[in-house]
Design goal:
358 residues, alpha+beta, six-stranded antiparallel sheet, 8 helices, 6 strands
Length: 358
């Protein structure tokens, strides 16, 4: 007869373990979902703005390293040219010494007094003896020159070697800063790509409205105008006349409104913040440092915004990593960051430190 056995039931302990495990898995999944929610547009914008600020900090360090590299390259080239010319001169002096030594060897090295006794023409010998004395004087002088040239060449070679080592370190630093900038920008792009097309369009529209508002504010002070309320670009923007050197620099910068920001760029078709200001002052006939940090020490500091004049440099952030040109009425003309163009912006949008009058 067939046996009808009831299926074996799982033990109470096993059921408990399975239940706890399943519950833990569900809880973990729930926690993971709660721990990594999709960031809102506002959160993305805040993170992107922070990344752009960090990228600009690295950009100014990159600019400083690049400027130092170019200076070191010029100094190394000059030193190497000096060493090459000095070596040629040293070779000529050594050749002269060799000729003197050969002449003495050919003369047999006979003492002049002995030659006097052997000479059949004392007058002729005296002339020769005078020539030998002159050669001896030249020899001593040439020896001194050779020793001095050797000392100078050794010093120049040492200096060139030190500058070459410094140049190698600077190039390494330049590469690191470039990689840091690119990393920050790449991270910012990924965050922006996490938004929908509509959200990105909304952010761009908000920035455009803010830029137009800043231009209108600057125009109200200077009597300029915009066509149809749109943002003016190029030299047509009649903003902030200014005067003297600062006014000329500001007018030059106005001609670049609408051109893109690009880190490390100094024109003519793209700029970063200090690239724009240094280029603008160069057009006005003044040479100022390349980086914002160095530009902060390029003239008279002005700590009151009410005393700023059109064309003065405006330094932002505690580490002085951003700079623009004062446009009047609380506005600044600058190259803000990657993804933007040269434009006007309210000075209060960034932490103002002081102005600089060149």
């Amino acid at each position: 007869m067939a046996s009808h056995r009831r299926p074996k039931q799982p033990s109470r302990a096993r059921v408990t373990v399975l239940t706890v495990t399943a519950a833990a898995a569900v809880a973990f999944t729930s926690q993971a979902a709660q721990a990594d929610p999709k960031p809102t547009k506002t959160e993305v914008k805040a993170k992107v703005d922070k990344l752009y600020e960090e990228a600009e900090q690295a950009t100014e360090k990159f600019n400083g390293a690049k400027e130092k590299q170019e200076k070191l390259e010029r100094e190394v080239d000059n030193l190497q040219d000096k060493v090459a010319r000095g070596q040629d001169q040293l070779n000529e002096q050594r050749d002269a010494l060799g000729a003197v030594a050969a002449a003495q060897y050919r003369s047999g090295g006979i003492d002049p007094t002995v030659q006097l006794f052997l000479s059949s023409d004392p007058d002729d010998f005296l002339q020769q003896a005078g020539a030998l004395d002159q050669i001896s004087d030249r020899q001593a002088d040439t020896l001194k020159k050779v020793q001095e040239k050797q000392r100078v060449l050794a010093q120049q070679r040492k200096e060139a070697a030190e500058k070459l080592a410094d140049l190698a370190d600077t190039r390494e630093q330049l590469g690191k800063k470039k990689a840091e900038v690119q990393s920050k920008l790449s991270e910012a792009r990924k965050l922006l790509n996490s938004l929908t097309a509509a959200e990105r369009a909304k952010m761009a529209a908000d920035q455009e409205r803010a830029s137009r508002a800043s231009e209108r504010a600057a125009l109200q002070t200077t009597g300029g105008s915009t066509a149809g309320g749109s943002t003016s670009t190029g030299s047509s923007a009649n903003v902030g006349k200014g005067s003297g050197l600062a006014g000329a620099a500001f007018a030059a910068a106005q001609s670049k409104i609408g051109l893109p920001y690009q880190y490390g760029a100094t024109g003519p078709s793209a700029y970063d913040c200090s690239g724009l200001t240094s280029w603008a002052y160069a057009q006005a006939g003044a040479t100022i440092p390349r980086t914002s940090e160095a530009q902060a020490n390029a003239g008279q500091r002005i700590y009151s915004q009410s005393q700023l004049q059109v064309g003065d440099l405006v330094i932002f952030y505690g580490d002085q990593h951003h700079v623009g040109l004062y446009a009047g009425n609380g506005q600044v003309l600058h190259a803000p960051r990657t993804g933007t163009v040269v434009r006007y912006e309210a000075i209060g949008n960034m932490p103002f430190q002081f102005g600089v009058r060149i």
